[in-house]
Amino acid sequence: MIPAVLRPRSALLVAALALSACAATTPGRSPTPLQRPEAPAPVTEDTPASAAARGYYAQVQQALLSQGLLRTDGGGPDTPFTARMLAENFLRIALYDEYDRGGAGSTRGELRRWDGPVRVGLRFGASVPAERRATDTARISSYLARLARASGHPIRLDDANPNFLIHVVSEDERRALGPVLRAAMPDLAPQDVAGITDLPRSTYCIVLAQSRGTSGIYQRAFAVIRAEHPDLLRLSCLHEEIAQGLGLPNDSPSARPSIFNDDEEFALLTRMDELMLRILYNPALRPGMTEAEARPIVTELATRLVDGET
Fold it and tell me: Which one, of 260, 297, 222, 310, lies nearest residue 96 by Cα?
């Protein structure tokens, strides 16, 4: 879960999971329809690069599990939080980017989110077998329904007319994604494209979200999930990158229980994360807000949520 924020001529959110995750944003041309490609012919054997990646990420998952990390319980009695903690974590995660384009530390940004329905399209590489595709599709569909409930915003699978693409691809397939990425997100800088095609092994997955000019309103997103990941690491990537692509680009070491934390304690969306999404899409907030503008509203919303008010 390693975030990295880019600031081209428009706005681009870049978020990645690697032991951490993040966000960036690109300029705005009028969106063109994203066509559904024909189903690729299945590949029955790993390439050397894919086989090496599969072995490496199996070891990564096992190492994290052996340390009691990648929890799937969403938090419990050992992870209490107050309204103040929720508000401060939200402000840090929604209003900051973990990295700027120059690789500097956390930078202050503005509130970003979608104003129209989020339509998610799944694109599987030929390396992904049919059974795996079916499992991933079912899990993503269920997760999107959960995100829609938590945020109160329309989010669903829509392969016919997507504005949020998720590519589940192998090492070799990811390296060939340049033309697809440039077609899906016009005006990306070459280094942004290379950030995906040359993705380092330490970055487990990544998402780019493109906003409309400097409005803070997302209109396109493009996520990449490594096909070589074992089951839980793969699901963890899906949970974090999709949620970050909704407008929670940063990580914070104080966020607990949360997937927006570099410590990898939680693999799947937590109760605190759901509340942050609910705050993010509350109509009292608006895209483009600064921290100073958002803080009093966020504080009030967090107090109501933790106190059990509607």
Answer: 260
CA atoms within 13 A on the CB side of 222: 26
Burial tier of 121 (Cβ tally within 10 Å: 0-12, 13-18, 19+): buried
Task: Look at residues 310, 249, 241, 240 and name the one whose alpha carbon lies nearest to residue 275.
Answer: 310
Longest CA pairwise span in the chain (Å): 55
Give the whole-angstrom CA distance, residue 63 versus residue 52.
Answer: 17
Structure tokens at 148: 């829609």
By mean pLDDT, which of 41-45, 153-157, 180-184 is the weakest? 41-45
**And the tokens for 110?**
């503005």
Pairing of strands 217-226, 164-169: parallel
More confident site: 33 or 140 = 140
Tokens 């380092």, located at residue: 200
pLDDT digits (tens, 9 = 90+) for 126-172: 999 999 999 999 999 999 999 999 999 999 999 999 999 999 999 99
Q: Reply yes or no: is the peptide bond before residue 257 cis, omega within 30 of 0.
A: yes
How many of the other CB atoms lie within 10 Å of CB of 10? 19
pLDDT for 71 equals: 98
Q: How many C-beta atoms surround the C-beta of residue 131 within 10 A? A: 8
| Structure confidence at residue 213 (pLDDT) | 82
E strands along 128-246, which residues?
Answer: 155-157, 164-169, 205-211, 217-226
The model scores a pTM over 0.85: yes
**Mean pLDDT, the chain, whole residue set:** 87
Looking up tokens 């940004």 gives 109
